[in-house]
Amino acid sequence: MKVAVAGCCHGALDKLYETLELLQRRHNVWPDVLLCCGDFQAVRNEADLRCMAVPAKYRHMQTFYRYYSGEKKAPVLTIFIGGNHEASNHLQELPYGGWVAPNIYYLGYAGVVRFRGVRIGGISGIFKSHDYRKGHFECPPYNQQTIRSAYHVRNIEVFKLKQLKCPMDIFMSHDWPRSIYHYGNKQQLLQMKSFFRQEVESNTLGSPAASELLQHLKPTYWFSAHLHVKFAAFMQHQTTSKEELPKATKFLALDKCLPHRDFLQIVDIEHDPNASDSLEYDAEWIAVLKATNCLINVTPSSWNMPENNGLHAKWDYSVTEEAIKEVLEELNHNLKIPSNFTLTAACYDPSKPQKHREAVHTINPQTTEFCAHFGLTDINGRIQQAKEEGSVRGEYEEEEEEGMDSPGSAEEPSEYNTDNSGLSSINPDEIMLDEEGGDEDLSTCSVDPSPDHPPDFSASFSDIRIMPDSMAVSSDDAMDSNNEDLERSGASKQAEEKSLNERSLKRVGCNENGNSGMKKIKRRNQAIYAAEDEDKTE
């Protein structure tokens, strides 16, 4: 089947689908599914905008709300993970995944689904070591800290994914697995993004948690975004026994959704022709969720997952064939994910803007139904309960020193001693945030909605790569070669583009004049910011 993969969407959903339509007109190709690797920005209204960790002048309504309201419907099944610029309050409603609009599915904090027999997994957010061992305790209204920590990857999600044993076809992460750049054309990467050199040479670029998952899951394909550059790599995994067959992962990172950027890729992936055309639950993943339900933590206390170190009675939460069969029996062998999308917030109305609309902590009926069906803890329900008991107030508190009543441990050192989000150097394409005091007053920031009828940018969004059969990556390509197959577009692309009536988009991160009291976006070509604290590059 044909899989379309997109990098950072940044809310440009109309433009993304228009690009797919352009692809169909030019090449008679239409994907069976679209995968988006984060920064999706499922913004429903003005309150959602204020829950997105970007400066106010970059909070644009974009067009997702039209799909949420039902005015439009996604023309292709769309599956996405969260990044570090999201409407966190919206995505938080669906910790186990769910529909954010008809035909648009969010994988949750971490998740695995199946489509036409292809197993698709992903983990949302970016890595920050200081939040990695905390629970999911954040909820609206966010403060200047929790609006960021809400999208930081947690160890429990990594732990769950590491319990999986069945082969993974596709996996998505927003930030790159650390060290993956050593398996691709590193020289070319540094020519395009020279400011990554220090981290590449010190092997600190990217997420160590994602790297750990890459080593464990060994998926056939791994797709990422975040760093706003196209990069391919081919990683041959080491075998642990003579009986184990060698596995390799084809890695591809893509740019953000802007004209003339490599933000979209079409990949042909083998599928089961007899499998259902519906999006389906993954039985092993459901079984793992059930097995690890006792590890749920909704406090800011730091703790480690169980491991074989003599401190835990149980550390292996992988599931048996019997547990998987039990899940199948619970579902009557019908794995189809129900089309139970529900509106949970008022939708943006261009004729009646509500600039002071406040976000509220919402329990989504999809999550309630999912948890009831499989006997899982509703994380948001637990947070609400904790708030009522006064243990969590939606803000950072002094971390508890005593151990938690859980199979985990709060006394062990962190798995990772350094904090690298995958973008600790100054990236000119990335939105920068200040750590001290934040970028804006969250309660009074302005909202700048997009026009009711945005212009048709499909002509400009023509940077599409089509790779028949499989991604054209080989071990030879991966070792500082020219990687010509990976970067080659259609032969007529440039000629066609010159004939198009192009219209430029306002680029995220472009310089703006004016001297208001607001904190400014830092530019990566300013040497003064080269040594900024890593949180300032989110």
Automatic annotation (TrEMBL):
Comp. bias (Basic and acidic residues): 386-395, 485-505
Cofactor(s) listed in the protein's UniProt record: Mn(2+); Fe(2+); Zn(2+)
Family statement drawn from the similarity comment of this UniProt entry: Belongs to the lariat debranching enzyme family.
Manganese is among the record's keywords: yes
Lineage top rank: taxon: Eukaryota
A single GO molecular function term of this UniProt record: RNA lariat debranching enzyme activity
Cellular localisation: Nucleus
Boundaries of every Lariat debranching enzyme C-terminal domain copy: 235-380
GO cellular component entries: nucleus
Alphabetically ordered keywords of this record: Hydrolase, Iron, Manganese, Metal-binding, mRNA processing, Nucleus, Zinc
Gene coding for it: Dbr1
GO biological process assignments: mRNA splicing, via spliceosome
Biased composition (Acidic residues): 431-442
InterPro entries reported in the protein's UniProt record: Calcineurin-like_PHP (IPR004843), DBR1_C (IPR007708), Dbr1_N (IPR041816), Metallo-depent_PP-like (IPR029052)
Region (Disordered): 386-538
Name this polypeptide is given: DBR1 enzyme
Feature: compositional bias, Polar residues: 415-427
